[in-house]
Amino acid sequence: MPLFPLNTVLFPGGLLSLRIFEPRYLDLVRECSRNDSGFGVCLILAGRESGEPATPAAVGTVARIEDFYSLPDGLLGIRARGGRRFRAGATRVRDNGLVHGQVRWWPDEPAVALPPEYSLLALILERLLEQVGGEHAQAGRRRFDDASWVGFRLAELLPVQPAERQHWLQLTDPLQRLDGLMRCIPRFQAA
What we know:
Shape: globular
Low-confidence stretches: none
Largest sheet: 5 strands, mixed, barrel
Strand content: 25-35%
Strand order of the largest sheet: 1-3-5-6-7
Helix content: 25-40%
Distance between the termini: 46 Å
CATH topology of the largest domain: Archaeosine Trna-guanine Transglycosylase, Chain: A, domain 4
Structural class: alpha+beta
Radius of gyration: 17 Å
CATH class of the largest domain: Mainly Beta
Mean pLDDT: 91
CATH superfamily of the largest domain: LON domain-like
Number of helices: 5
Number of domains: 2
């Protein structure tokens, strides 16, 4: 699978808008469109988003392109949605600088209803989504009862370091993720 190392973490169900300008990523978009396939989004562990190939985290999320558009500067813009998580094993860099990895799918999380002790997180998420808007702000009430969905959405929105987001992405138990989110909420409360 082609990998797109970024300074961000994509969660299942999350949306990602990208500005595509490097030839290797134009090739990636072309390949994904031609094969009706996705590409892997991985947090950068070392390096930068542009220039020499960066070192990606092993665990990432497959992204499927939903929309293409021209940006005001004439560059290609894409909107992609996060799908399943994966672990990339062996990676290689193609001649064009695009990193490819052999991936194994990360286990799907069990469907878990949001336990009452985490209801504060659903309330915080609802308030954040009211402020930022977007597609997730229109989610039905039942989504706020889904432990994985609440955890993934909060992990996207809270102002934390990418390494912390990566940790939450790698957890396979939604209740562990919610527990970590509960522990970090006091950091954001007004003094």
